[in-house]
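In response to reviewer comment 3 from the previous cycle, which asked for concrete evidence that the modeling workflow produces usable outputs, we include below a single protein chain processed end to end. The sequence was submitted unchanged, and the resulting structure tokens are shown without manual editing.
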Amino acid sequence: MALKTRATEALGIEHPIVQAPMAGGPTTPELVAAVSNAGGLGSLGAAYLSPETLREQVKEIRDLTERPFGVNLFVPSPFEVEPERIQRANALLERYRKELGIEAPEELSSFAESFEDQLEVVLEERVPVFSFTYGSLEPELVARLKENGATVVGTATTVREGLRLEEDGVDMVVAQGSEAGGHRGTFLGDIRDALIGTMALVPQMVDTLSVPVLASGGIMDGRGLAAALVLGAEAAQMGTAFLASEESGAHSEFKRAVLEAAEDETAVTRAFSGRAARAIKNRFLVEVGEHEEELPPFPVQNALTKDVRAAAQRQDHAEFMSLWAGQAVRLASPTNAAELVESVVEGAEAALRDLAPRPM
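The workflow returned the following structure tokens.
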């Protein structure tokens, strides 16, 4: 049974599987290429990469695969730099810096890479698929990307956001359910009102939009892909499932945490980055999370905690790492990307065959 959809046709892929673009290290060029070579769509989470590093990694991916792949960036939104909030955040972080044996960094002059410069690399390198999170793009920019040959994919956590993305001209929309690991893509309204489960969100998005919808959140195996397709999605975007793969760039302690966590051991937090994101609970999440209302917004808090998270990785200290993962984390297993894609496809085909009506 061939799982062909509008999304597989538009993306130029064999299977309706998109590897989620997890920024911060998990999506290495090796992982991206491995998923693409296996017939899915590998995606590079490039939000934290400098333009130069982004260009290098795109070239590395092209050295490893001739198949389509994607690059994802975070759409910047206005934020305030409030010295008092930064001071309070640094006071909270001091105990962790002492425990890790590091000094507080000098005052930061910038908090994020230039989105405009990153996007120019995407355009210059003619990346086949461009996806974005945290907002909408000006229709003129969407048109420029499409004229450059890219398939453009936006992220929505509500139907209202999906409609906005469709109006702006995107080719397809990722419906990000509340189960999903990592940062929430909400950009319209209160983020607390946008925690809608994948099973509830996808059919409502499908019934309202005309562009293909990709289901994201809680999908770890063939059963999840089959369910997404039955709900009307035309592909599944999977992140947590790939975290423990051989090609993943996640730290070994991160992988261990993923393989040992249960479904009730994640939480949505602003502790690490200043923006709501789902992660496996650890000391940092719990302790700093008690002060969430005092923290600076993204990307300020993300920049402030960078030294703590980096030191934690160097010292194999998982209690201070940002362990982004979704609620279906119990289903994670150590494998390689190609085997995972194959097992998901086979599992989905089997599940859909079992659902097919039988002769009376």
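The mean pLDDT is 96. We consider this sufficient to address the reviewer's concern, and the full set will be provided in the supplementary archive.
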